[in-house]
Design a protein that fits this description.
Keywords: Aminoacyl-tRNA synthetase, ATP-binding, Cytoplasm, Ligase, Magnesium, Metal-binding, Nucleotide-binding, Protein biosynthesis. It catalyses: tRNA(Phe) + L-phenylalanine + ATP = L-phenylalanyl-tRNA(Phe) + AMP + diphosphate + H(+). It comes from Scopulibacillus cellulosilyticus. It is an enzyme of class 6 (ligase). The chain is of the alpha+beta class. Helix content is about 40%, strand content about 20%. The chain has 2 domains: about 1-90; about 110-340, 2-Layer Sandwich (BirA Bifunctional Protein, domain 2), CATH 3.30.930. Helix 1 (about 1-20) runs parallel beside helix 4 (about 55-90), helix 2 (about 20-35) packs antiparallel against helix 4 and helix 5 crosses helix 10 (about 315-320). The strands form 2 sheets. The chain has a 7-stranded mixed beta sheet, with helices on both faces. The chain has a two-stranded antiparallel sheet with strand order 2-3. It contains 11 helices and 9 strands. The model has no long low-confidence stretch (mean pLDDT about 85). It is rod-shaped and about 130 Å long.
Length: about 350
């Protein structure tokens, strides 16, 4: 039996040494050390041995088992390390190669212009006021000196949900709501950016949904010259320090007097070109002194308080600023168009 164990040991160690993978090694473990393996069979037959032989053969069997287990463990560690090395070699990365560029998103040109305008007016002491896009007819029209039978309502063909609820046609309702919330006490100095909606045919210069930014300043002794000063600063910051402005008489139901603001053409310097239609001036926004009726309906005493308001379209400003010829580019989500406007 001693010779059998020694032969078994030599055979097992030789096969373990020759094993090429972990599966073969596991099969050898089961073959020699399993419950049905030859060492177990030897130990089961020890009852047939004499008392003198049992401890000798038992010790030898245990030694053989430990040698085989040790050889298998050592071989297993070797095979696992070889597997890791092979995997690392397969998945190796050349760190000297240039990395893949990170795609960084851009500000949408419309968002960039709106944020630029907001930053400008915040720097001038204005705060931002927001309101609902689904608006009450009273705040959208009546509180702005546009009663139900007023012909100027036709200037803003509206999306009505019910007879009294509609999608707002301008952000002026925010002005009325804010003034009302002040309970007749000034000052009120806000800008109101947001989406507005009108029943219009979409083309290169019109859209049924667009952005608007309106401004409002109410306090004691506010004058038209204050409005001109604010708008001059705006024009110079947005279109260049050499810009000039002019105010032309106009009509808006909620302001009196009302004026349109033009800026000297930034493309030709006022000499006349296709951008300014040979006039040297470009129309930018509408404005005026707040109508006494609007002040009164919002709780302000028009004999004590006065104010001005203005409204502009960020799309128009962005189109002029970046030379964009079609308003629909802002809403088509064409990545080729958007990639032209790099993050500052």
């Amino acid at each position: 039996m001693k010779e059998q164990l020694e032969s078994l040991r030599n055979e097992a160690l030789e096969q373990v040494k020759s094993a090429q993978d972990l599966k073969s090694l596991q099969d050898l473990r089961v073959k020699y050390l399993g419950k049905k393996g030859p060492i177990t069979e030897v130990l089961r037959g020890m009852g047939k041995l004499s008392k003198e032989e049992r401890p000798v053969i038992g010790q030898l069997a245990n030694d053989v088992r430990e040698m085989i287990e040790s050889a298998i463990k050592e071989k297993q560690e070797h095979l696992e390390m070889e597997k890791i090395k092979a995997q690392l070699a397969k998945e190796s990365i050349d760190v000297t190669l240039p990395g893949s560029p990170v795609q960084v998103g851009n500000h949408h040109p419309l968002t960039a212009v709106i944020e630029e305008i907001e930053d400008l007016f915040i720097g001038l002491g204005f705060s931002i006021a927001e309101g609902p896009e689904v608006e009450n007819d009273y705040y959208n029209f009546e509180a702005l000196n546009l009663p139900k039978d007023h012909p100027a309502r036709d200037m803003q063909d509206s999306f009505y949900i019910t007879e009294e609820i509609l999608l707002r046609t301008h952000t002026s309702p925010n002005q009325a709501r804010t003034m009302e919330a002040h309970n007749g006490k000034g000052p009120v100095k806000i800008i109101c950016p947001g989406k507005v909606y009108r029943r219009d045919t979409d083309d290169a210069t019109h859209s049924h949904q667009f952005m608007q930014i309106e401004g409002l300043y109410v306090d004691k002794n506010v004058r038209l010259s204050d409005l001109k000063g604010i708008l001059t600063v705006f024009a110079k910051k947005m279109f260049g320090e050499d810009r000039q402005i002019r105010l032309r008489p106009s009509y808006f139901p909620f302001t009196e007097p009302s004026v349109e603001m033009d800026i000297s053409c930034f493309h030709c310097g006022g000499n006349g070109c296709s951008v300014c239609k040979k006039t040297g001036w470009i129309e930018i926004l509408g404005s005026g002194m707040i109508h006494p009726n609007v002040l009164e309906m919002s709780g302000f005493d028009p004999k004590v308080y006065s104010g001005f308001a203005f409204g502009m379209g960020p799309e128009r400003i962005a189109m002029l600023k970046y030379g964009i010829n079609d308003i629909r580019h802002f809403y088509n989500n064409d990545v080729r168009f958007l990639k032209q406007f790099k993050r500052a």
